[in-house]
Amino acid sequence: MADTTARRTRRSVRRADSTQRAADRVNAAAALQRALDRRDNGGVTGH
Would you say 29 and 23 are in contact if contact means Cβ atoms under 8 Å apart? Predict the structure, then answer.
């Protein structure tokens, strides 16, 4: 490659993407916990 060739630099989009994925994970964990809380209302019979 010649020295005069312009190199393209990749800009990282991963930071925003990983932040969104982290938020999605937190939301999914909260939703799962709510579902489990609804099911687990105590008692031997489960009612």
Answer: no
- The residue with tokens 């630099």 is 9
What SS3 class is residue 19?
Answer: helix
The C-alpha atoms of residue 41 and residue 39 are separated, in whole angstroms, by: 6
Distance CA 23, CA 25 (A): 5
> Residue 7 in 3-state DSSP?
coil
Average pLDDT, rounded, for the chain: 77
d(CA 20, CA 14): 10
